[in-house]
Design a protein that fits this description.
Elements: E1 3-7, H1 13-23, H2 31-40, E2 47-51, E3 54-67, E4 73-84, H3 93-107, E5 112-115, E6 129-130, E7 133-140, E8 156-160, H4 166-176, E9 209-215, E10 218-228, E11 231-232, E12 235-236, E13 238-247, H5 250-260, E14 266-274, H6 280-283, E15 293-296, E16 299-302, H7 305-311, E17 318-325, E18 334-341, E19 344-349, E20 356-359, H8 360-366, H9 373-378, E21 382-384, H10 389-397
Parallel strand pairs: 4-5, 13-14, 17-20
Antiparallel strand pairs: 1-2, 2-3, 3-4, 5-16, 6-16, 7-14, 7-15, 8-9, 9-10, 10-13, 11-12, 17-18, 18-19, 20-21
Length: 409
C-alpha cells in the first residue's frame, strides 16, 4: 500500500504517539508524561506517515527560542518525536520527513533547527552537528569534601512543596537562560516539565523535592532532587539524584551543592546532566572520586546560514569567507563573508576568495562555541585556504560559557 505523508490532525495524536512509543521500545509513557506531551505537541508542526490507517513514521517540532553566544535568544525549531517503524525502513521515509520539515522551518523564518538524537549517527547526513555536550557524575560524598566560596554561609535554604515552587524557580531559570548558549527559554506550558514526577518512573526514589536558596529575602537559586534509600549490613548508603540546580551566583550554587552532598543516610550524589564547565567540579576535593563522563547532547543545523551567523556575536573580531557545502539545503551552499565582533555581525553572500571550506554540519557543531573549528580542522573536517584564517575564526566562534541543553524535548 502507498504511504502518505501529511501534517498531523489533532484527532490522530493518540495513534501517532503510539507509533512513536512502539519505535522506542514499545513501553508506554506514564499517564502524566503522556498528558504533558499531548498538551505540548504542536500538531501543525508535526508530521505523520500513514500506511492505510496505521502511523508508520512520526516527526515533530517545537517552537523554541535558544540562547546563542552573546546572550541573544534566537528562534529555533526543536525537532522531536522522530521515528520510523521497523517494517518501513529503507524506503526514504526519514529523508522525506527531514526534507519537508526543513522546508517548513525555512518558510517560518527560523534560522536554526536543533535536536537530541537517540542514535548520534543518524542526523549528520541532514546537516546536523553536535553543538553541545553534557556531563554526568557520581560524587562520592563519603570521600569528597567541598571547598565553598566566601559568602556561602550567608545563603539560607528552605524546603518548599514541589507543586508550590514553580513561580519562584521559573523566575530563577529565566535569569539563567541568557547566560549560557544552548539554554531554552520556556514557553507557556513548559514550566510543567521539571515538575513532572510520575510515581511509576521514580525507580525506588522519593518524590521529587525542592530546596530554595535565599539571601536577604530573595530567592537566588534552587534545586530539584530525589533521594533513594539503600541499606546494607554496614548501614545506610542511599543516593541523591539532582534533577535541576541553578544558582544566580557562586555562593548560592555552592550552598545548594553543599546541602545535597550532606543529606543524611546517603553516600553519593548523582548528577544526570550538567555543563562540562559546571562549578561543582571545582568545589570538590577530588574530582576523580566523582567519575565524570560526558557525551554529545544538542545537535544544531543552520537552516539559513547568513541569518544564523548574524544572530550571534563573536568573542574576537573576525572577517572570514566560508565556502559552505550543503547538499540537503542547497540554498546555503556557496561563499559567505562573516564580519563580526562582540557587538554584532554581518554575514552575506560574496564572490571573494574563500578562506575556510567546510560543510554546514561543521558550522552547526561550532555554532554555539562548544566545538572549535580548529579541532574540526585537525580531523580534516575544515580546510584552511588562507593562512591564519582558521585561528582567527576558531577564536571568534568560542564561548566563555560552555553550551549546554538544560532539558530534553
Amino acid at each position: 500500500m502507498t504511504t502518505e505523508l501529511r501534517v498531523l490532525d489533532p484527532s490522530e495524536w493518540g495513534r501517532w504517539f503510539e507509533a512513536l512509543e512502539l519505535a522506542f521500545g514499545g513501553v508506554p509513557e506514564q499517564p502524566e508524561e503522556r498528558a504533558l506531551w499531548r498538551d505540548l505537541t504542536e500538531c501543525e508542526r508535526s508530521l505523520a506517515v500513514w500506511d492505510g490507517g496505521r502511523a508508520v513514521a512520526t516527526a515533530g517540532a517545537f517552537s523554541f527560542r535558544l540562547t546563542v553566544p552573546g546572550g541573544a535568544s534566537v528562534p529555533a525549531a526543536g525537532v522531536t518525536m522522530v521515528s520510523v517503524a521497523g517494517t518501513h525502513r529503507r524506503r526514504g521515509i526519514l529523508t522525506s520527513m527531514m526534507r519537508r520539515q526543513l522546508d517548513d522551518v525555512r518558510a517560518l523564518g527560523e534560522p536554526l533547527a536543533v535536536l537530541t538524537a537517540s542514535e548520534a549517527v543518524i542526523y549528520g547526513r541532514f546537516g546536523y552537528g553536535a553543538a553541545s555536550r553534557a556531563q554526568r557524575a557520581v560524587i562520592d560524598t563519603t570521600r569528597v569534601r567541598l571547598d565553598v566560596p566566601a559568602g556561602t554561609d550567608a545563603v539560607t535554604l528552605r524546603m518548599v512543596p514541589l507543586a508550590e515552587s514553580s513561580a519562584v524557580t521559573e523566575a530563577v531559570y529565566a535569569r539563567m537562560v541568557p547566560r549560557r548558549p544552548g539554554m531554552l527559554a520556556r514557553r507557556p506550558g513548559w514550566e510543567r516539565l521539571p515538575l513532572l514526577d510520575p510515581p511509576g518512573a521514580r525507580e525506588g526514589a522519593s518524590a521529587r523535592l525542592c530546596v530554595l536558596a535565599e539571601r536577604g529575602g530573595e530567592v537566588v537559586g534552587y534545586a530539584f532532587y530525589a533521594i533513594k534509600p539503600e541499606w546494607s549490613w554496614a548501614g545506610a548508603d542511599g543516593s541523591v539524584t539532582v534533577h535541576e540546580l541553578y544558582g544566580l551566583d557562586p555562593a548560592a550554587e555552592a550552598a545548594l551543592w553543599r546541602f545535597l552532598c550532606s543529606v543524611d543516610l546517603t553516600g553519593k550524589v548523582k548528577v544526570n546532566s550538567a555543563p562540562v564547565d559546571a562549578a561543582w567540579q571545582h568545589l570538590v576535593s577530588d574530582v576523580r572520586r566523582c567519575e565524570p563522563t560526558e557525551r554529545e547532547a544538542l545537535f544544531a543545523r543552520l537552516v539559513e546560514v547568513g541569518a544564523a551567523l548574524e544572530a550571534r556575536t563573536y568573542r574576537a573580531p573576525v572577517d572570514v569567507v566560508f565556502e559552505v557545502e550543503d547538499a540537503f539545503c542547497p540554498w546555503n551552499a556557496g561563499r559567505w563573508r562573516l564580519s563580526g565582533d562582540a557587538k554584532g555581525a554581518v554575514c552575506s553572500r560574496t564572490s571573494d576568495a574563500a578562506d575556510l571550506a567546510l560543510s554546514v554540519r561543521e558550522l552547526g557543531a561550532a555554532y554555539l562555541g562548544g566545538t572549535s573549528l580548529a579541532a574540526l580542522a585537525s580531523a580534516g573536517r575544515v580546510t584552511e585556504l588562507r593562512e591564519g584564517a582558521l585561528a582567527e575564526a576558531s577564536l571568534a566562534f568560542g564561548s566563555d560559557a560552555a553550551p549546554w541543553l538544560p532539558h530534553g524535548f
